[in-house]
Amino acid sequence: MGNGIAFRIVARRIIASFAVLAIFWMTGGITGCVEGWSAGGRAGISAAGVVEAAEKAMAGKAKEKVQIRADKSGDYDLEKDVLILEGNVIITQGETVIRADRVEIDMNKKVAKVTTGVNLTQPDLVLTGKVFTAYLNDKRVIVEGDVVLQKDEEQASAKQGPEKPGDSGKMGAMAAGAAGTGTGGKGEAARGESARVESKGEVSSKKKDRITLRCDRLEYWTEKKESTATGNIAVTKGETRAWGDKAVYREKDKLFILSGRKVRVERGKGETMTCAELTMYTDRDVVVARNNVEIEFETD
After folding, report:
1. 24 — phi, psi (to 5°)?
2. What is the C-alpha to C-alpha distance for residues 195 and 290, in angstroms, rounded to an integer?
3. Burial classification of residue 190, based on how many CB atoms lie within 10 Å of its CB (0-12 exposed, 13-18 middle, 19 or more buried)
4. Residue 139 near residue 91, CB atoms below 8 Å
5. Is 214 helix (H, G, I), strand (E, B) or coil?
6. Distance, first Cα to last Cα, the chain
7. Exposed/middle/buried for 228, CB within 10 Å: 0-12, 13-18, 19+?
8. Contact, 176 vs 289, CB < 8 A?
9. 140-169 confidence digits (pLDDT tens)
């Protein structure tokens, strides 16, 4: 009986070993074991070698690949570990695609410096600027000089809109929590802690509007789809234009948050508003102003 139990245990171990070896062979993990066996004789293959090969195979599967193509040339300085590519260079990492005329990559740090004819694209997003620095391990880029970010956003229907929709396109008519209202044909309409502005009418859920951000410098996290922009901020969405010192964009919340010494927003027909912080939604025609709010508009 003891021999029968021992036989079953040995048989199970043999079956398990063949299964493990089959998995390693299919994933390429067996290569390291076979090479060690060939170099050092049969004793070269061991449990430690199998585990090490498996870990390498699993680690390789977990890492995201970065694909690079270039039409003209690719020079690899092995001593400095620097790769230089020229001619319609395309870097693809997940859904992020960077195109440029010339790219220099520090292969040790996985940092790409892009300086000529550069743009970054994702679904419904285009980012351009003079100089790109892409931190491929962090999935982060820093763009400097004449930065332009364009985002096409599907607009929410009326049922998906804010909890307190407005009745008018006038900024003054949409002031919420304002301390005062102007009475002249043109003057200060409201001054208070916060104000909400919304355009009149329903918006089709199938319609897409383009939001454009311009700035001097922008840091963008490509996987989280979040950015921080500084320097000469200007955001445009339809007839709404806003300016500030800093802008934070969050894709998951569908909004830009502008801040600065005096954030300013303008719409058509002489409607203006200033505040310390402005939230501009990308999927609806709504802006929310906070702190030191001043609104000015013209009556009919």
Report:
1. -60, -40
2. 7
3. buried
4. no
5. strand
6. 102
7. middle
8. no
9. 999 999 999 999 998 886 554 444 443 334
**Given this model, what pLDDT does residue 63 score?**
73
**Domain layout of the chain by residue ranges:** 2-62, 67-143, 155-298
Mean pLDDT score, 45-60 = 41
User: Across the strands, what pairs with 233?
Assistant: 244
User: Under CATH, which number does the domain 155-298 receive?
Assistant: 2.60.450
Alpha-carbon dihedral angle through residues 57, 67, 127, 216, given to the nearest 10 degrees: 80
Return the axis-axis angle of helices 30-40 and 2-27, rounded to nearest 10°. 110
Is the pTM higher than 0.85? The answer reads: no
- Nearest CA among 272, 279, 278, 275 for reference residue 295: 272
79: amino acid identity, one letter: E
> In a 3-state reduction of DSSP, which class is residue 123?
coil
